[in-house]
């Protein structure tokens, strides 16, 4: 994929960029490593000052930044602005809490024959961040804010279709006061990742992206014995039981499926409805999806913009066509509109069988699959019938059912009577082939720290 800004709403190439040369990559790694040797000794108070100043800029520039995000990956202006403001919140959260999260953890010295004994968190060094295009600012900031507050430095290899967002991130942190080379953007293709990760000056890596990308980075890091955090795909279930507030569940289901034009790892994708309310759920859900307005993402009346890439739109289209050819029923959508750009309509599919790829595969677009179940056991069985385990949603007012879903669903997260959202205050990550490690919360900032045991006689 060329490194370029291509407007998904029109297919027009707006600007192209030249990939960094091998010499430029080498120089960037050298600068990052040199910066870490001094930056690691800065105080939490100083880092917090820089993080809060960066948050100030993100808030002040939210409208301009939103326009850039929309131009490069096609989400609506409203959701793009919300993303920029969420990044500011992330910086402020770690500015306020990092020192307490990384405070020494005391042990009982008498029990280990010491005068002092404790664990101390120390930064690892240069961390490579390989990030996707779907949340071009937030995905990177939820790594950068805790990593920089912990005393690490970062090198960002962003997706090739959001180069201007990638450059903005490095620029806004520099203008916020972070010292030169604390956070660098490298405009390179995926083929450069292995070289960077194998460099002995790079201590660790984090990746948010596809399963194949995660396999590649995980294998290289394993070979080099370097820690990684991987946040990969998801095919999240959204379960609705008879005791649920059905109106609230349907309204949330529509939002959960089409958020970010349906291009979110934590978007609900498989909707599992109890047979007692299945028909009502499907009818109202289809009506809600049909009511959405697809169009220009810069128009405030637009609900769903284009998909970010032409190849992504084509893949969604193929998944729907294959399911229909195998007997699935398309309740709404399912036809690419005849217009420029990479648009695809909100689509609902039912009558999906286990032999269809759609039963287990992730669909990265505004396509919902709906399943009928007899009871809670079958609901949990279908929820877990995927190799992914990122997040999940369950709607029920029955306390016993809530506990069953919390305990029984195989996922890194479960949201009861609500929609999955990433919060700085809560750990974020998955199980199974959705990856490992955690971002956000105290767990996230500790992922790229060495917990050093200290024992003093």
Automatic annotation (TrEMBL):
Alphabetical UniProt keywords: NADP, Oxidoreductase, Tricarboxylic acid cycle
Every Aldehyde dehydrogenase domain range: 3-454
The keyword NADP appears for this protein: yes
Domain of life of the source: Bacteria
Gene3D superfamilies per record: Aldehyde Dehydrogenase, Chain A, domain 1, Aldehyde Dehydrogenase, Chain A, domain 2
GO biological process: tricarboxylic acid cycle
Single Gene Ontology MF annotation: aldehyde dehydrogenase [NAD(P)+] activity
InterPro entries, alphabetized: Ald_DH/histidinol_DH (IPR016161), Ald_DH_C (IPR016163), Ald_DH_CS_CYS (IPR016160), Ald_DH_N (IPR016162), Aldehyde_DH_dom (IPR015590), ALDH_GabD1-like (IPR044148), GABD/Sad-like (IPR047110)
Pfam families per UniProt: Aldedh
UniProt keyword Hydrolase present: no
Entries under PANTHER family matching the protein: SUCCINATE SEMIALDEHYDE DEHYDROGENASE [NAD(P)+] SAD
Family designation: Belongs to the aldehyde dehydrogenase family.
Protein name, as recorded: NADP-dependent succinic semialdehyde dehydrogenase
Species: Mycobacterium spongiae
């Amino acid at each position: 994929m060329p490194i370029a800004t291509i407007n998904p709403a029109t297919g027009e190439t707006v600007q192209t960029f030249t990939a960094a040369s091998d010499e430029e990559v080498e120089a960037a790694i050298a600068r990052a490593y040199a910066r870490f040797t001094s930056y690691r000794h800065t105080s939490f108070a100083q880092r917090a000052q820089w993080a809060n100043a960066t948050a100030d800029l993100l808030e002040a520039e939210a409208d301009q930044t939103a326009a850039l995000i929309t131009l490069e990956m096609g989400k609506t202006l409203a959701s793009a602005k919300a993303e920029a403001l969420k990044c500011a919140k992330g910086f402020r959260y770690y500015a306020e809490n990092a020192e307490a999260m990384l405070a020494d953890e005391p042990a009982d010295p008498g029990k280990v024959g010491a005068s002092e004994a404790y664990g101390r968190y120390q930064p690892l060094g240069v961390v490579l961040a390989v990030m996707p295009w779907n949340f071009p600012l937030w995905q990177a900031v939820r790594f950068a804010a805790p990593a920089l507050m912990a005393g690490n430095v970062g090198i960002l290899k962003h997706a090739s279709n959001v180069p201007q967002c990638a450059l903005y991130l490095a620029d806004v942190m520099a203008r916020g006061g972070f010292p030169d080379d604390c956070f660098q953007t490298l405009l390179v293709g995926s083929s450069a990742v292995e070289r960077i990760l194998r460099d002995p000056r790079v201590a660790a890596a984090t990746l948010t992206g596809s399963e194949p990308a995660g396999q590649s980075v995980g294998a290289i890091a394993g070979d080099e014995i370097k820690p990684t955090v991987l946040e990969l795909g998801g095919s999240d279930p959204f379960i609705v039981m008879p005791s649920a507030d059905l109106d609230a569940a349907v309204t949330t289901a529509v939002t959960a499926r089409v958020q970010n034009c349906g291009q979110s790892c934590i978007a609900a994708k498989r909707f599992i409805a109890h047979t007692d309310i299945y028909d009502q759920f499907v009818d109202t859900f289809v009506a809600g999806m049909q009511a959405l307005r697809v169009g220009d993402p810069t128009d405030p009346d637009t609900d769903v913009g284009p998909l970010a890439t032409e190849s992504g739109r084509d893949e969604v289209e193929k998944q729907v066509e294959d399911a229909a050819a195998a007997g699935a029923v398309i309740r709404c959508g399912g036809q690419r509109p005849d217009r420029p750009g990479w648009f695809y309509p909100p689509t609902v599919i039912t009558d999906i069988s286990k032999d269809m790829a759609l039963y287990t595969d992730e669909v990265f677009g505004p396509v919902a699959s709906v399943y009928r179940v007899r009871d809670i056991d079958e609901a949990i069985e279908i929820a877990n019938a995927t190799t992914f385990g990122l997040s999940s949603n369950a709607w029920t007012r029955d306390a016993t059912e809530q506990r069953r879903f919390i305990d029984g669903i195989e996922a890194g997260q479960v949201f009861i009577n609500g929609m999955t959202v990433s919060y700085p205050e809560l750990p974020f990550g998955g199980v199974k082939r959705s990856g490992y490690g955690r971002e956000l919360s105290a767990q996230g900032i500790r992922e790229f720290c060495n917990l050093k045991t200290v024992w003093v006689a």
